[in-house]
Amino acid sequence: MAQRTVQEISGQPGKIAGAFVSPVGGQISLRVIDDHLRAQTKLAWGLETKEILIKCERIESVEVTDGRIWSLLWTGLGILLVATVWESVMLFGVIFIVAFFLIKQRWLIVYSGRQTLILFFKESEMANVRAFAQTLVAKQKRQMPPAAPPPRQDSSRNLEKKR
Fold this sequence. Notes:
- The protein is an alpha+beta fold.
- Helices cover 34% and strands 37% of the residues.
- The chain has a domain at 8-66 and 106-144: Pleckstrin-homology domain (PH domain)/Phosphotyrosine-binding domain (PTB) (PH-domain like).
């Protein structure tokens, strides 16, 4: 079965905050061009526009993940702890906690030296994102130089025979 190649994907950009990955407003597109990965990011309201070119051989790893929005849980717990007097405010805390268990996010992370590219996507795009990740890894493998041959072990034996 032949693998499908996807050369470009787009979605919402993300940032790493401590141990958590969170989306930020805007648009990001990742595209494989020859032996480079091109990332174009435009944050919400045009506050920041960025274009990055990374050689495919410099890509360390590609990660496709889905997970919970941890800030919903922490916000809900914080509201519950603070609002022990007002029941109507406590309801908001419960809503945040329920949302934590119901909502999942999906994201792609490309690690490359100093750059970490994060792209959030919808569940319906999972097949395209996986195919893009496979295309990226295949390009990276093709760009890597061949391994050097192992050093010869018998060179000291040849010197002894010549003496």
